[in-house]
Hints:
Distance between the termini: 16 Å
Mean pLDDT: 94
Number of helices: 13
Oligomer: single chain
Low-confidence stretches: 288-292
Radius of gyration: 18 Å
Shape: globular
Order of helices and strands: HHHHEHHEHEEHEHEHEHEHEH
Helix content: 40-55%
Number of strands: 9
Strand content: 5-15%
Amino acid sequence: MFDLFVDDARAAPILTEAGALLGQDIRTFLQTVDDATLFANRTSQILCVTRGLVAAACLAPTMPFTVAGYSVGEMTAWGVAGVWTPEQTLRLTASRAEAMDAASGPNDGLGFVRGLACDHVEALVAGFDCAIAIVNPGQLFVIGGARETVQRCCAAAMEEGAIAARPIAVHVASHTRRLSHAVGVFRAQLETSEPARPVRGRTLITASDASIVSGQRDLPGLAAQIDTMIDWAATLEALVERGVDRLLELGPGTPLADMVRTTYPALAVRSFDDFRSLQGVAGWIAGTAYGA
């Protein structure tokens, strides 16, 4: 996750803060931790946000750009936009995860359903006391609920014609009402964070409603995402409507870039993990806007 950045001084303070939150140097942590710890909610949120913040810091773009974030990636996006420092962003991310863990049932989780229409999935999840957590392009839906019912819902989806459906390695029902008790806790943390307006030249679009974020007034919406469905398909559409024609996924991995390639084949889309050097990334985006 961090091989491209370990020798870059701009990454050092972010990696140090992440290590402090994880209780161990982040590179040592990744080399020694077991899967149960790695995929724990708090750990995975901190790691994902750290990766995005480090990538943006080392890229240090000077041209105007637009940034948006998927699920916990919204925390990354607010940090990249300059609403908080990277260190503040990571501490708030840890607080977010802790609030979610405290509110979560012991057997909550997420799954996905691909290949059914939205109204079909809405009816399906309602029958299993689950909920749609994220709407993605291409009839791909993340669903949340108790893990047993998520599994049964996925099995039913396959019986009803889904292309694919199964539980995923997330142990909280993010973006569903099962986490409602976490919203107020996280909002209180946000209200004391003294957010700045996004840095000039950096446009931040929230996945809450695909609107532009200006700062303090948008904090309630950020907190509410914890228990509210997010529409990533609408967010991508908003980026395209604003004229974005080149997108870079900060990572880790390539799933968002792959999603955009399928949905908007005319766009130039890459992930940080497609490149072997920072120079390669910088060369690709030179003179263009980008999203994360």
